[in-house]
């Protein structure tokens, strides 16, 4: 175990202990956010394979990019939960923790005698968070769910395309991440309530619910108009002009959400006559005459380069951006100025670059991250320090393959 993993982490959640049974993405992202906020995370992983993402290429010195991205600042305890002894170790740890996080299908943790009712009997203040694809009472409740499944059922894939093109998933795994984001909201609210009542809560989050909750104005368009919103690509369903416009050598994003920005944009284009043109004077008319307006804009912008328009749009105070690749986004000056990338060192893997948490408190970012742990890297220390087991007992558990250790 590295020094940063044994030292208490700083942050608003310092002193909070989390037992994390989750794997893949929906769940591990949540526990990583809690770790960034200062919580101590004990990640429970299967002995043979660990979190399935440990096996997803590409790798850095044998460690998966996927696992690295979601598991900083956590301790790894490798445990056979199907064995009575392994489940008992998990129960004893849960009795000492503030939060339990899991993302199995509904019913799995109950069958392991690790469900909410079983664990709160020993720890009434326990906050137990369950993330699943659909929730226990959904018609889909027994179906496996991954990010793309939630995206397909939420309407996101239908909307994420240019008109007339095939449905496409978001490259951002928002189905998984939305479940994690809402679970953090629920956990923090339950922690606040527990400070007043002393009682825990069972926080239940479904990935599909979370994506539907994030539809925002799209669902309201349907409720208000009765019309099913249709794909508009980079354009906005009700704001014009908004989206990607071609230049002589690429594309530029323009977003005119207010009348002021629309007027600024028309002046930027040297097309001030559009401001008073009755077809484009107000929101409703611009939306009704979108095609005609966009033809005028595209004809004007195609005559100059992307760089020309970025400079001119900024000069006229019009919201704008180039369209960057992932590499370009990570290398842009903003990321460096905001200190969004840190380098951590693992004793076996070496230096790892990580994207930091975006949260600042009093102008300061989170505590320095600890590198993602090797499978079972912290098993011995956790059993000794948390449960008081002696070395012979720990060795026997490892020999019986109830516990896994990185050095075994």
From TrEMBL:
The keyword Transmembrane does not apply. GO terms for molecular function: CoA-transferase activity. Keywords: Transferase. This is Formyl-CoA transferase/CoA:oxalate CoA-transferase. It comes from Puniceibacterium sediminis.
């Amino acid at each position: 175990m590295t020094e940063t993993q044994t030292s208490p982490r700083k942050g608003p959640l310092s002193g909070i202990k989390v037992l994390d049974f989750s794997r893949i993405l929906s769940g591990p992202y949540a526990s990583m956010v809690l770790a960034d906020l200062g919580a101590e995370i004990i990640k429970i992983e299967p002995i043979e394979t660990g979190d399935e993402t440990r096996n997803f290429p590409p790798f850095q010195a044998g460690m998966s990019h996927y696992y690295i991205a979601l598991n900083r600042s956590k301790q790894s305890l490798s445990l056979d939960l199907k064995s009575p002894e392994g489940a008992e170790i998990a129960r004893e740890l849960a009795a000492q923790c503030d939060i339990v996080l899991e993302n199995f299908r509904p019913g799995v943790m109950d069958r392991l005698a690790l469900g909410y009712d079983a664990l709160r009997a020993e720890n009434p203040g326990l906050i137990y968070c369950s993330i699943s694809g659909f929730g226990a009472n959904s018609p889909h409740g027994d179906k496996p769910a991954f990010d793309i499944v939630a995206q397909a059922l939420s309407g996101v894939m239908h909307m994420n395309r240019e008109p007339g093109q095939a449905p496409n998933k978001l490259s951002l795994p928002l189905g998984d991440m939305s479940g994690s984001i809402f679970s953090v909201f629920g956990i923090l609210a339950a922690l606040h309530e527990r400070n007043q009542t002393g009682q825990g809560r069972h926080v239940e989050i479904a990935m599909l619910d979370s994506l539907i909750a994030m539809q925002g104005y799209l669902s309201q368009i349907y409720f208000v108009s009765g019309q099913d919103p249709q794909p508009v690509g980079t354009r906005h369903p009700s704001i014009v002009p908004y989206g990607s416009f071609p230049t002589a050598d690429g594309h530029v994003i323009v977003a005119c959400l207010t009348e002021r920005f629309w007027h600024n944009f028309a002046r930027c284009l040297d097309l001030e006559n559009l401001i008073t043109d009755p077809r484009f004077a107000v929101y409703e008319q611009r939306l009704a005459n979108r095609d005609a307006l966009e033809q005028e804009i595209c004809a004007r912008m195609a005559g100059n380069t992307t760089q020309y328009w970025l400079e001119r749009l900024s000069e006229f105070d019009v919201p704008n951006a180039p369209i960057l690749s992932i590499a370009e986004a990570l290398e842009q000056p903003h990321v460096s100025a905001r200190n969004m990338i840190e380098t951590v060192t693992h004793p076996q893997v070496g230096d790892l670059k990580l994207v930091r948490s975006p949260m600042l408190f009093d102008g300061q970012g989170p505590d320095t991250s600890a590198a993602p742990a090797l499978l079972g890297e912290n098993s011995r220390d956790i059993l000794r320090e948390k449960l008081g087991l002696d070395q012979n007992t720990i060795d026997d558990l490892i020999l019986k393959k109830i516990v896994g250790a990185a050095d075994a």
